[in-house]
Specification:
The protein is an all-beta fold. The protein has no helices and 14 strands.
Amino acid sequence: MPSFAASLTYVPATESKNDAELYLFGGLNKDHVPHNDLWRFNLETRSWLHISPVISKSAKLNEHNGIPERREGHSSCFWTGNQGNSRKLVVFGGMTVRKKGKEKERTRLNDIVIYDIDKNQWEFQSKLSDVGPKGRSLHSALILQNKLIVFGGWTVYHRKSSEQKSLQSLHSISSSNSGSILVSLPQIVKKNFG
């Protein structure tokens, strides 16, 4: 089980039963290596369960075999879907370690992955390319009116020197009913927050 830089997301109880839960995803293991384990904590029974999501046929076509890339310093939010009748976790960004030749390189992610709690599967994975927010970790996020709002975080400023930069940008990301991602960049008031 992770001990650092994981996300912990509260999922409220359904109307039919008292099943409020916490979902713990990713983070660093004891060797400080990112992973993509998913755990559920039942608030009524006070017990942890390691979850093994079902891999959907369509998700097998992506480069990570239907599961999100290992990560830490990401965000995860509870979402009821566009129609308001489902239970999902929306994971954005974070940092991973990728092999580059014989070396390992830390890389900031700008992807969105969605875990459907009721189907027990990762169902949607999308890299936001140049339109969306830069890859980042240690940011804040929340879902408001079916939009993922992302603020701040850290990114690599100069790739060659690995110099990091604190971000003070705000992004609004929404999903259309067809599943495509729409990114709108609200006007930002240039102001130092500290």
